[in-house]
Amino acid sequence: MLIGEALPAAVTLPLVLPLVGGSWGWSFVAWSAPVAATLLLFAVAAPHRPRGRTPRSSRWWPDWRGALAPGLLLGGTGGCYFSANTFIPDYLHAIGQPALVGPCLTALNIGQLPASALILLFAGKLTGSRAAFVVSPLVAFAGLAAFFLPHPAAIVAAMGLVGFCCGIQLILSLTLPPVLAAADDVHRLSAGMFAIGYFVSFLMPPLGGAIWDATGMPVSAFIATALGIALVPAAALALPPLGSLRIARAG
Predict the structure, then answer these.
(1) What pTM was estimated for this model as a whole?
(2) Within a domain: residue 34?
(3) 225 occurs within a structural domain
(4) Backbone phi, psi, residue 128, to 5°
(5) 3 state SS for 4-18
(6) pLDDT tens by residue, 61-82
(7) What was the pLDDT predicted at 127?
């Protein structure tokens, strides 16, 4: 999933747009082709094995109460990521640095890949760790602040750091449903978390645009990015004690 986010950001400007005559609309069509091909491969080539009977739960509606804190955590992470992707190009054009658009978008998206490797190495310590959801946003704030420095290398590196933190928070947030819910309730908690999370995520870019329109200041659009970052530790503090739950599930 992270590679799927990073690859289009890295190659759309230098490779895909020239191939489609500079049309953003056709670039979306081009990136839809691998998705369609993947669906076709799943339908044709994926092994299909019959499942054993599983007890049906009468509860199908998402667990909204339990999903609120993890959903807001996911929403803050997504809000930071999506609003940064949205406003990096316009902001850099506004400050006279259009050449940094491609490198910054690439750094923001590629920066998530080392986060995946880090979590793989320290999965036992990081999974279900409230501290990770508090420390990572603080580092992301530092990266966002460095983005406004008047040095091209610092601007690109800062977006890489923000992407790294978003990657950590995204991966760890996806581990929360099996940590917080019983085995037969994970799907309900996941459904509620994703519904809340992506609702909040997709509110952040329009909010940033409204703030920019209201103030006339390009930098003000990133207030939405900062709000997304701030939402993560606030939501993490509302989670139940994750360590004891993880031990209980393992036992």
Answers:
(1) 0.83
(2) no
(3) yes
(4) 75, 20
(5) HHHHHHHHHHHHHHH
(6) 888 888 999 999 999 999 999 9
(7) 83
